[in-house]
Amino acid sequence: MSKLAIETQHIVDVFRKGYGALFSTSLSKVQPQMPKSQLGLFLKQSVKKQQRIIVQVNPTAHSDQINEFIGIPVFSPHSTQVIIKTASSRTTYLINAKDIRHIRLTK
């Protein structure tokens, strides 16, 4: 292995260890940041079809962790926030659209 390859691998290992320590969620559960256009399209489709999704949110001023919320999304009529209603309808989450990291369908 070349010296550059060894140094690059070392940097990647350090990054993984450091990044994983920043959040309580393990690095293997952190999803990649989706492009804004893809987030917007997927949100619109899931709102229209009333699909149950998992929304992963970046750390914010209110929480220093990556969090996930599961439910059916609804657009707030008065802001850019997304409302996530759980299946039991006992809990409702209000999420700023700009804080969303990743969206995926539930299984």
Keywords:
single chain, 107 residues, alpha+beta, SH3 type barrels, 2 domains, 5-stranded antiparallel beta sheet, 5 strands
Average of pLDDT: 81
**Roughly how many Å apart are the termini?**
41 Å
Strand line-up across the major sheet: 4-3-2-1-5
Shape: elongated
CATH topology assignment of the largest domain: SH3 type barrels
Helix content: 25-40%
- Which residue ranges are poorly predicted, with pLDDT under 50 across at least 5 consecutive positions? 19-28
How would you describe this protein?
This protein has two domains: 1-30; 31-105, Roll (SH3 type barrels), CATH 2.30.30.100. With 107 residues, it is an alpha+beta fold. A five-stranded antiparallel β-sheet has the order 4-3-2-1-5. The protein is 32% helix and 28% strand. The chain has helices at 3-22, 36-49; strands spanning 53-57, 67-75, 81-85, 92-96, 100-105. The model is unreliable at 19-28 (pLDDT under 50).
